[in-house]
Amino acid sequence: MKISAADVKELRDLTNAGMMDCKKALLESHGDFAKAKLLLKEKGKSQADSKSARIAAQGMVSIEVNEPKHLAIILEVNCETDFAAKDDYFIEFTDTISKLLLSTNIETIKELMDAAIEGFNNVEEYRIFVVAKLGENISIRRFRRIFFDGTLGTYIHGRKIAALVDLDIDNTGLAKDLAMQIAALKPEYIDQGEIPDEMIETESRILRLQAEKEGKPQEILEKIVTGKLNKRLNEITLLGQEYIKDSDLKVSQLLKKSNANVNLFVRYEVGDGIELEKKNFVEEVKAQVDASE
């Protein structure tokens, strides 16, 4: 059966699939556009399924804010390579999902994947479409809906690190500086009062064992442990850190000077905590050669 270029173009305009995929679908469906569209949809789903087990640790983060509602969305979407993370389809997908979250009351990933979205039946169908376009696994890893009470400070570094902070005073400059601080020095807690007791006890025990192994005198051992423990806890707390714009100033001192408090902060970094598969280069090349024979 002969398929005209005009028919291929029409199907491409309807589905945004590749030219060759459209031609093959029309040939297989004997020119039936409805069947061809279904074939393309099934092919996209099949490709997405085959790629779903592949580790996606690259990607991007985004922040959307609705000031009147005092609502912010922070989102991480992953793909397999940094090259794909720069693709227009991937960027548009992430931005669209971020805006959808801002305009709805979606609370979970499952709710999000089932949610209706313009141009597709749901977000999962949209994801499958982008997977087919990029040839890589894509996953919406995490998001948070933040209702802030005071001044919101946000900062995004290279679309790889996103940070937001809620400050209890009206000072946008300070809020922005704190968001940059959080992005750069990745604190885990606001202050030491938030750190779980078990974590402090574990850290203290490790430091004590290290000091004993080094043969530190018993009379100064506790002092050494206390000093190192306090330094470690300051490193992981926002208020205990040195201020990035003035190393002589602690963040706690900066806030005290401004009579300000931090209500909350959130930091996302692309791929943070995802365990990457270690590959043997020789074995990887051999597998590709074997597959081509």
Give the SSE map.
Elements: H1 5-15, H2 19-28, H3 33-51, E1 58-66, E2 71-79, H4 82-85, H5 88-103, H6 109-114, H7 123-134, E3 139-147, E4 151-157, E5 161-167, H8 172-185, H9 197-213, H10 218-235, E6 242-243, E7 246-250, H11 251-257, E8 262-269, H12 281-292
Helix pairs in contact: 1-2, 2-3, 3-7, 5-7, 9-10
What does this structure look like?
By secondary structure, the protein is α+β, with helices and mostly antiparallel strands. It is built from twelve helices and eight strands. Helix 3 (33-51) packs across helix 7 (123-134). The radius of gyration is 26 Å and the shape is elongated.
User: Spans of 5+ residues with little confidence (pLDDT < 50)?
Assistant: 45-51, 284-289
Q: How helical, in percent, are the residues?
A: 40-55%
Alpha-beta content class:
alpha+beta
Rg measurement, Å? 26 Å
General form: elongated
Order of helices and strands: HHHEEHHHHEEEHHHEEHEH
Strand content: 15-25%
Features:
single chain, 293 residues, alpha+beta, 3-stranded antiparallel beta sheet, 12 helices
